Amino acid sequence: EEEKSSEKRKAPWGRALATASPDRGGLTSAFPPARGSRGKMEEGKTYPQDGVLAYLETLEAQAHELALKQQEEEQQEKKLNRLKARVQELRARRDELRAKVELQEKKLVDKGVVTDPAQPSPQTVLEWKIKSIKAMLQIFHLTGISGKPTKQGVCFCISTAYEGTYLASYYLDILTKPEVRIQRHSVPVFIPLEQIAKKYLQTDLRRFLSVLWEHLNAYAGRRYQAEQLEERFSEHIEGTLQKNSLCNLLVFSYNVSRNGQSFPFTVRLLYGDLCGSLPTEATISCTPGAPASLAETAAAHSDAFRRLALHRAFRSLVDAKQSQ
Amino acid sequence: MDEIIAEYIRRTVLKIPRDEIMAVLQKWGFLSEAQLQTINFRQTKESISHSVAQLCEENSADVKQAAVLDIICNHMYPNKRVWSVYQMNKTGEETDFFDFADFKKKFKRRIQSALKNVTISFREYEDNAIWIRIAWGTPYTKANQYKTSYVVYHSQTPYVFISASVLKSNLPLLCQALVVASNYHDIREMELRSHCLNSLKDIVFKRFSQNFQTYYPRQERSLPAENVDLRITNENKNEKERIQRLNLEVFGDGPQPKLDFAQYKLETMFKSDPKLDVLEKKEPFRCLVKFSSPHLLESLKSLAPAGLADAPLSPLLTCIPQKARNYFKIRERKSFLPESFVSP
What we know:
The complex is a heterodimer of chains A (324) and B (344). Chain A is α+β, with helices and mostly antiparallel strands and 324 residues long. Chain A contains eight helices and eight strands, in the order ααααββββααββββαα. Among the domains of chain A are: 133-220, Chromosome segregation protein Spc25 (Copper Amine Oxidase, Chain A, domain 1); 224-322. In chain A, the strands form two sheets. Chain A has a four-stranded antiparallel β-sheet. Chain A has a four-stranded antiparallel β-sheet with strand order 5-6-7-8, with helices on one face. In chain A, helix 1 (2-20) packs across helix 2. Chain B starts with a helix and ends with a strand. Chain B has three domains: 3-62, no CATH class; 83-205, S-adenosylmethionine decarboxylase (4-Layer Sandwich); 242-331, Ubiquitin-like (UB roll) (Roll). With 344 residues, chain B is an alpha+beta fold. Classes of the chains: A alpha+beta (324), B alpha+beta (344). At the A-B interface, helix 4 of A face loops of B. Chain B: Keywords: Centromere, Chromosome, Nucleus. Chain B: One of its GO terms (biological process) is CENP-A containing chromatin assembly.
């Protein structure tokens, strides 16, 4: 009884208290109880207040999300820089130790004595061996093609990446007896796996894996670029980005302004090489009544699309547009 | 505006759950926001559908818009229909770029060259899925909007998902048009059918969880919190762990695709004690075994842990997603083959 009445007393102050406490990471946590108990107190009047509070809440949540996103990005950058610095550090240390070892060896050779260094315990040796094997396996996985022997053959893992970002991994269970064949796999159905297998699987397993790796990586790269374009430049693109399953034909439109008027450019990117992640053709078309000077701009844009990754090419166009 | 179309739109709206009607109409985009605001969603669905039909009449909706509304409804609730999977084949090796405009043109042309009275609508979705709706007529009557087939196709894949429901006689024409439009050579029906469209896609696109052995990334699976009461000991712990391990190997650790049934048609000889001699003629005993479930694969996965079946399960049951089929024909085991013969 006492608690309930004190809660009721707190409710009208709840909002004021919330604004005064910045360390709570946003006001959203403070709102629900205030609203709930307010509802209990004033049953008839909840509706309009819910409207205003709900709106403020959503604005608050949006701002919070944006701030979180920004924070995340900053943190990732910081982490990357930290790791880079650490790599440098470790390399320097390794070189240092190498130099030391060489120096020691030279000294020992000069002295003519080989001293017996303190033997580490078998436990620590084992732990170190396990650690280095795990690190080796991790490195293999990062190279893009790794495998593990199974009872009847090998299970290969092909990991894809584009410009430093690791993307999805795909697996193949390969049997070796009575002949080399694929038992099962998780390769997407639009990758021409059967064709590649027909050509290389029986004769040259290494080539088979390498060609498949190229196809998968190129596909992952193309899809990543298309997704980046949609995510980062959605407000610059008119309508939606049209693509097909292999992401080797992309069509989208954006506006270019000239002399105060805006003209729509429609881009058609064709990636003729399935193992490539840059378009082989970039056709830009505009409405028939467009001024001739736009043809030059179109050519420049087309060139950019063919040379740079899609999202970077688009960023350069946007920057050029804004500087105009 | 055609009364038939108004009625069709009204009936389509009736099929939508009341809470979703607003969202669907907004997605449709045919009625303006102002018009949508005038609809009172607290009435009965019957009245709501009449209000919507009224507004559509004011805007003079035509067959095309009604068709789009129907596609949107079916895309939202695909599990109300039964979908069959078809596989296309081609022998050429050229890379196909798949031009959507080209596909639409070829498809329409092929169907309309054989049958003029059809309504064909296309809609493309985010995940590269193309939805095609065909309302069939006859050479002498207009297209009947209630006799429809739906096709879902993902570009550059050899699989097509068809929900034909009525008029099986139009199926060959539909298949032909698909083959021509997508640059393949032929098409055959797979033995795979279910209500859940996404699960069918998961199975043929190999998106379901398969357990592949890898060194890395190390699957550090956290064991479920054991009952910490030390007075309780699990006598069958080894057996339980063995079953878990086998289950994991076979089913993987992700969610299973959702199938409604698996059907096994037996054409084997009845083996009995010769003294009983049930059958006078030595004919194969025909028998049909059908497993039905709201979620067949999950229930198969939980059979062994629940103690209802021995692990490992029969490969006839566990090969379903791998072989991408839920219709099987089991014939007599040939004497020189060590495994039982499961025919395609």
